[in-house]
Every structure is written in C-alpha cells, then in structure tokens.
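Sample intake sheet
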Amino acid sequence: MVDIQASDWVRFARAKGLSESEIYKKHLFKNAMVPVVVGIPASIILAIGGATLTETIFAFPGMGKMLIDSIKAANNAMIVGLTFIFTVLSIISLLLGDIAMALVDPRIKLSEDKKGE
C-alpha cells in the first residue's frame, strides 16, 4: 500500500476531493490486494503437496500419507480416488482465485462482449 499511495491516480482522487477513507477503501485496498489474491490458489496447491511430503516424512496419518502408502501397495483404486480429490481441490482453489481476482482487480470486468450483434 505504501508504493501505491504515491501513484498519479491516488493524487488525482485526492484532487477530486475524495476523503481518505474513500481513497483507501475504493482505490488503494483493491489494488493492494491483487498480489495477495494471486498467491492464494498457489498456496493452497502447495499446501496439498506439502502435506503429502510432511505426512510421509513424519508419519502423520492423513490423505497425503495415504496416497504414498497406496502407491507403495499398488492400490490403484485408492490412488485414483485420492488423485481425483486433490485435483478437484486444486481446480476449486484456482476457480475461487479467479473469482476473487475479478472482484478485487478493477481492471477485470465480468460482462458479455456484444461484438457479434
């Protein structure tokens, strides 16, 4: 937020007479949240992979250790099921990240393009 406060568009908003709370809520906060929102889906996916590694190394019971144990035991049904669950979680996190990005980033608009009419 410190980097964004000196931007031209923030100075322009102040020149228009917007209050500091409006500038922070409508302009600064949304633009400062863009890098945070971009990193959330990747963090969730890395947490799934990290859980698999951590559960295997420290012998914690969990889905990650179950996947590795299933691979060692050649339990194909369990491997497919756990891979499906991890994949669905990853896709949902990416979808929610894209939706959050559309809400936070002012440059992204969710509207239909009427070029064909």
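Comment: The mean pLDDT is 84. Helices lie at 2-5, 8-16, 20-58, 63-73, 76-104.
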